[in-house]
Amino acid sequence: MRKKGYVPYTFCVLYNVDEEEKETLLCGHNDKLVIAFGILNSPSGTTIRVVKNLRACNDSRGATKYISRITDRESILRDVRRFHHFRNGRCSCGDYW
Questions:
Q1: What's the rounded Cα separation, in Å, for the pair 78 and 44?
Q2: Does residue 96 register a pLDDT over 80?
Q3: Cα(95)–Cα(84) distance, integer angstroms
Q4: Edge-to-edge strand ranges of the sheet holding 48-51
């Protein structure tokens, strides 16, 4: 993803640690792990649906935009406030959140 231009939003991590550790912490966000699991365990072209009971952070939304572009899949992320439809590297909320 970095080769395609993805840069982690480390300001989402509120711990007092260095930038490298913040990037490592961001890798463990559950919505990213669920999307990776969906990519590995579903047929190509299948829409990936994720439902969260919390708001999606900026980093998770940014990563999902890149994932949708790289894998050429649609992802639907439902957080506590709204639905986010990711297609071709764009989010339906227009980066409102």
A1: 21
A2: no
A3: 10
A4: 48-51, 75-78, 83-87, 90-91
Alpha-helical (H) ranges within the chain are 19-26, 30-41, 58-71
Q: What is the pTM of this model?
A: 0.79
64 HSE (CA, 13 A, CB side): 31
Percent residues over pLDDT 70 in the chain: 99
Rounded Cα gap, residues 82 and 84, in angstroms: 6
Mean pLDDT score, 54-64: 84
Distance (Å, rounded) from C-alpha 45 to C-alpha 74?
Answer: 8
- The helix, strand and coil proportions of the chain, stated in percent and rounded to the nearest 5, come to 40, 15, 45
pLDDT at 71: 92
- Collapse the DSSP code of 15 into the 3-class scheme (helix H, G, I; strand E, B; otherwise coil) and give the result: coil
**Strand, coil or helix: what is 87?**
strand
